[in-house]
Amino acid sequence: QMPDSEHGYLFFAADMNQRARERHHLEEDLREALHRGELLLYFQPQFELASGKMQAAEVLLRWQHHEHGMVSPAKFIPVAEETGLIHEIGDWVLETACATLHAWLERGIPPLRLAVNLSARQLRPKLISRVLELVGQYQLPVHLLELEITESVLIQDDAKALALLESLRAAGFAIALDDFGTGYSALSYLRRLPIDTLKIDRSFVADLPGCEQEAAMVLSILRLAQTHGLSVVAEGVETQAQLDFLRQHGCPAVQGFFLARPMPLQDLEELLLR
Ligand code: C2E
Ligand code: CA
Ligand code: CA
Ligand code: CA
Questions:
Q1: Atom of ligand 1 nearest to the CA of 81
Q2: Ligand 1: residues within 6 Å at CB?
Q3: How far is the CA of 6 from the centre of ligand 4 (A)?
Q4: Would the pLDDT of 218 be above 50?
Q5: ipTM > 0.95?
Q6: CA 19 vs CA 5, 12, 85: distances in Å
Q7: Average pLDDT for 10-18
Q8: 3-class SS at 219?
Q9: 132 pLDDT higher than 50
Q10: Is the pLDDT assigned to residue 143 strictly greater than 60?
Q11: Three-state DSSP class for residue 243
């Protein structure tokens, strides 16, 4: 058995080394990405189901790497979070979103609410003064900014994070709870949470309408939201059947590839001007 496990270990070690190297490169490149201007924002519209109108767009970060092409945020956001680079990157996302809204107002483009994703690490007292500074600097009505946070932030029942969200909400920003349903304990906390919108995680939407369990989950989220006076956005809508199901059960809003993929700014502006 010995030679085998040794062999296995060597492979494992080589793999670890390779991964550690890749990871190190990624980290170094990410540090440079902002200064090289390799980061950009994509936008994915959300539609009100009853009217079919665009109600907002989610801001999604993209990294156009000088050698490797597009790098997925699923790959680099975790690295940014672990290294603390998320503060600088997150600030860039917030400021660029605000600058975009400002430009629309200046150019007479009908503005659309923008939903910006925040990592848990960004939820610190500094954030409040910073977003207030940005809306002041770019002369924005606060209701044009929505902040998306994931359920995991609140499951820890972190009093500081809760207080922070309360202040943001008191200042007029809309708060959306992202990937809702994936950390089920939040269901019971919902009443106490300073939030406006639930975003149903796309894993629940994916199996609609066929899978009874997922369908029941979506229905209970819709009912729960109604009870608590919360809005809902179903994420990851990819088919007509999913859309029909959500419409039939009174889901207020939807987002997903079936309706619109994340798109560059120019494409979104064309939609806004249409
Ligand atoms: P998320 O916040 O849950 O964003 C939604 C993700 O689902 C996006 O992936 C979007 O492209 C994808 N999506 C939208 N519609 C569909 C659909 O119909 N089907 C499928 N299969 N996928 C769909 P993306 O852009 O790759 O972003 C991945 C994650 O990276 C985001 O998940 C979010 O957690 C994070 N992220 C993106 N931008 C930022 C940012 O600026 N700041 C932070 N902190 N995180 C970000
Ligand atoms: Ca999100
Ligand atoms: Ca989500
Ligand atoms: Ca997510």
A1: 44
A2: 44, 60-61, 72-74, 77, 90, 93, 117-119, 178-179, 202, 236-238, 256-257, 262
A3: 38
A4: yes
A5: yes
A6: 21, 10, 20
A7: 70
A8: helix
A9: yes
A10: yes
A11: helix
